[in-house]
Specification:
This protein is of the alpha/beta class. Helix content is 30%, strand content 26%.
């Protein structure tokens, strides 16, 4: 199934048109024509079956024939991950986490972060492409980048966890998880969280966890954590 995206449609929508860029792709590249069927999601769990009524490369118009909604997961996973020095590594994480089933992502700027500015527009495109490619019906929420201190002061639902490499008492990620419970997990930059950041997280009731016996890159740790939480919650 080839999946298209339109964030502005819902159960009440009867017809809609794609923008010029998407219309050109549908008609010129994919060579779709009148009466062809397209499957569309709004990124909120809905799958719409539509039929082309106007095969225009400027304004491809469809009517909705039917729709269904995928049940949301009983848990939500929010990863707060420091930007990597190389953008392509963070983009790889975004793509793979979307495929696996992450719900929310926040870039966090840490004491040892080498990159302090991110391109959210570019990141959004990565998430959208990954969602369409793997036929996900829920588009992950991408938040503005914030400092570690700003993020840690926020109250998040469920378990609040921090994964770091310091030789201190830590629990395994698996040992602290419970089925169908929300999780917020912090992943640091290449140089890890600073001692001050770890102390601040503990003061705010974050639980220190280990992701294994080896030292992982930021993007690898994020994908490992994402898969671990999603796999743990599979029925």
């Amino acid at each position: 199934m080839q999946l298209f995206y339109n964030p502005n449609i819902n159960e009440a929508t009867e017809t809609f048109s794609f923008d010029k860029e998407e219309s050109k792709h549908i008609i010129k590249v994919l060579r779709k024509k009148d009466t062809d069927i397209l499957f569309v999601t709004n990124g909120e769990g809905f799958l719409f079956k539509t039929e082309i009524t106007l095969a225009s490369d400027n304004k491809c118009t469809v009517k909705i024939l039917s729709f269904e909604k995928a049940a949301p997961t009983k848990f939500k996973l929010h990863l707060a991950v420091a930007p990597t020095k190389m953008n392509d590594r963070y983009e790889w994480f975004l793509e793979k986490a979307t495929e696996i089933g992450i719900h929310e992502i926040t870039p966090i700027i840490c004491d040892r972060s080498e990159r302090k500015v991110v391109n959210l527009e570019r990141f959004d495109k990565i998430l959208l492409a990954a969602m369409k490619q793997c036929n996900q019906l829920y588009l992950p929420k991408l938040n503005e980048a914030v400092t570690f201190k700003e993020f840690i002061k926020r109250k998040n639902d469920g378990f609040q966890l921090i994964a770091h490499c310091e030789e201190t008492d830590k629990k395994t990620l698996k040992s602290v998880l419970k089925p169908n419970e929300d999780v917020t997990l912090l992943i640091g930059p290449e140089g890890d969280f600073s001692e001050k950041e770890i102390a601040l997280a503990l003061e705010n009731n974050y639980i220190p966890v280990s992701l294994g016996n080896t030292r992982l890159r930021t993007e690898t740790a994020a994908v490992v954590a994402c898969h671990s939480v999603v796999f743990f919650n599979e029925n």
